[in-house]
Design goal:
Elements lengths: L7 E6 L5 H10 L3 E6 L5 H7 L3 E4 L25 E4 L1 H9 L3 E3 L11 E9 L18 E7 L2 E4 L5 E6 L2 E8 L4 E4 L11 H11 L8 H16 L3 E5 L4 H14 L3 E7 L7 H12 L4 E5 L1 H8 L5 H20 L5 E5 L4 H7 L19 H5 L2 E3 L7 H10 L4 H4 L19 H20 L8 E15 L2 E14 L7 E2 L4 H14 L3 E6 L13
Parallel strand pairs: 1-2, 1-3, 3-4, 4-11, 12-13, 12-15, 13-14, 15-16, 18-20
Antiparallel strand pairs: 5-8, 6-7, 6-9, 9-10, 10-11, 17-18, 18-19
Helix pairs in contact: 5-6, 5-12, 6-12, 8-9, 14-15
């Protein structure tokens, strides 16, 4: 996607686990930004990217260690504002003539600072801190996470805020437009952090021109330029990402697009009918409904290992998709709902492999296997931006606001062996649970909610009879981006009412539990 018409901000990533949050805060301010690992940012890259401002992220390394990450020296000579965060502050000081001392973690004797802290201002206040220190107690809560610390400022810098263990918590060289903070303004635990970013981009001259209306127009133009008069295949899952991509591409090229909807028999209640109705009937998008539920469920029979189940589903999905896609003559492009977090994660900071927590369901390998080129119109967007684009395209809020649903579907909400009986029970229980959440007006407060049917039967009593039926677990979490999550604090009244409904309305369940595990240590899904 071309972004030449937008002011651009560059985030140089030094390996922080929350670098994506910096980008999210900026996108919320309608500022276009990109994250690039420090080792990819050369002098030539800087010239080509031509950022209007630069942010240095945090990172796990120590600037006092030989060979630790550094930005290119040219970045300081570009004449654009720079904001350093945590490690970013330390590397700025070290590179510009200041001094950083190692804490105990890196072999020094300094005091580390992790968690909540309070910053108080010095005498003078600068534009970066508009809206800060205005409370009654003249201090701001921030989130610290550093072992090393700045012990001497670089020439030209002054201190504008301190904390008990960070005497240079906020520093700046206002003449050059260089600003640096020891804490993380992007995280939730720095409540006023968004205001600091807002001040920085305003001072840098950003006009907030990154809007979904503008993105929609650019995306349509880019799709038409890329595709020309050729045909495009889109793997439609019914989820928000692939659906928004499909509607956007259809708006650009009309009937040159054909969607393939693979129905693996692991969808929620009435979901297949809803997807077909929306896209074939409402949007008049050419759609192949590949009902292959018997194939998938047959291959999954007797399988209980979660990774084995995921791999079976992933392989079958590719085989089925290819079979039906081959029926579309003249197709040269494959459309995918790839998002910006996927792009960021594919370019790891260290260049090394990450631990596989669980396999992901996608159409990986298909473009090469089928000789197709990729169309990825959402690859610069975060999830919330995809939802905003969907609204811009006219998709109903009831659809755009749907909770995420995994590619392997109900298979990973059915620990142990999958059977048609258990899937039928699970679909009905999940429908009752979601109905309860909607009736109580809680759906939009929750990131994701679902029922898992457990691989255990328990004794119960209904009327005068003994039952021996399945137990189920309710799961509901709050999250910003799915990377971390906490359980939703339902009232006991809600849980009791929901459990009663499920037991009364769903044959086969006689016991209901609520999962209060956060992520980490758990994952959101059960498998």
């Amino acid at each position: 996607m071309s972004t030449e018409t937008h002011d651009r901000l560059l985030i140089i990533d030094f390996g922080s686990q929350v670098t994506q949050l910096i980008a999210r805060r900026l996108r919320e301010l309608n500022v276009f930004c990109e994250i690039h690992p420090y080792q990819n940012v050369s002098d030539a890259f800087l010239r080509d990217f031509a950022p209007k401002a630069v942010i240095f992220s945090g990172g796990p390394d120590s600037v006092v260690r030989e060979g630790s990450p550094r930005p290119p020296a040219a970045v300081f000579d570009m004449g654009v504002p720079i904001l350093g965060i945590c490690y970013g502050q330390q590397v700025m000081m070290q590179e510009l003539g200041g001094k950083v001392e190692g804490g105990k973690i890196s072999g020094g004797g300094g005091t580390a600072e992790f968690g909540r802290a309070y910053v108080t201002p010095t005498i003078e206040k600068i534009d970066l801190l508009d809206g800060w220190f205005d409370g009654d107690d003249d201090r701001e809560q921030v989130w610290m996470s550093h072992g090393d610390h700045v012990s001497r400022l670089a020439p030209g810098f002054e201190v504008y805020g301190t904390s008990p263990n960070a005497p240079y918590a906020i520093t700046a060289d206002t003449n050059r437009g260089f600003y640096a903070v020891q804490f993380h303004p992007e995280v939730h635990h720095t409540p006023n952090g968004a205001k600091l970013y807002e001040n920085f981009v305003r001072m840098a001259g950003f006009t907030g021109d990154w809007t979904m209306g503008a993105y929609r127009e650019e995306a349509i133009r880019k799709i038409r330029e890329q595709v020309g008069d050729k045909r495009v295949i889109c793997g439609l899952s019914g989820g928000v990402d692939s659906s928004v991509a499909a509607v956007l591409i259809h708006e650009a090229i009309g009937d040159q697009l054909t969607c393939v909807f693979v129905d693996h028999g692991l969808l929620r209640q009435n979901e297949a009918d809803e997807v077909v109705s929306m896209f074939r009937d409402n949007y008049n998008i050419p759609l192949i409904h590949a009902d292959e539920s018997e194939l998938f469920l047959g291959e999954l029979e007797g399988q209980s290992d979660p990774e084995t189940k995921r791999k079976i589903i992933g392989k079958l999905f590719i085989d089925v998709f290819q079979k039906h896609a081959n029926e579309i003559e003249g197709a040269e492009f494959l459309a995918q709902g790839t998002l910006y977090p996927d792009v960021i994660e594919s370019v790891s900071f260290s260049g090394g492999p990450s631990v596989t927590i669980k396999s992901h369901h996608n159409v990986g390998g298909l473009p090469e296997k089928m000789g197709l080129k990729l169309v990825e119109p959402l690859r610069e967007l975060f999830k919330d931006e995809v939802r905003a684009l969907g609204r811009e395209l006219g998709l109903p809020d009831s659809f755009i606001g749907r909770h995420p649903f995994p590619g392997p579907g109900l298979a990973i909400r059915c620990p142990g062996e999958i059977t048609r009986e258990k899937l039928d029970i699970l679909r009905l229980a999940d429908a009752v649970y979601i109905d309860q959440i909607r009736k109580h007006g809680l759906y939009d407060d929750i990131w994701q909610a679902f029922v898992a049917i457990l691989p255990v039967r328990t004794v119960g009593v209904m009327g005068d009879g003994r039952t021996y039926d399945y137990a189920c677990a309710l799961r509901a979490v709050t999250s910003v981006d799915g990377m971390t999550a906490d359980y939703y604090p339902f009232s006991h009244e809600f849980l009791g009412e929901t459990a009663t409904r499920i037991i009364n309305e769903v044959p086969g369940i006689n016991r209901v539990t609520y999962d209060i595990t956060s992520k980490p240590p758990g994952t959101i899904e059960w498998e």
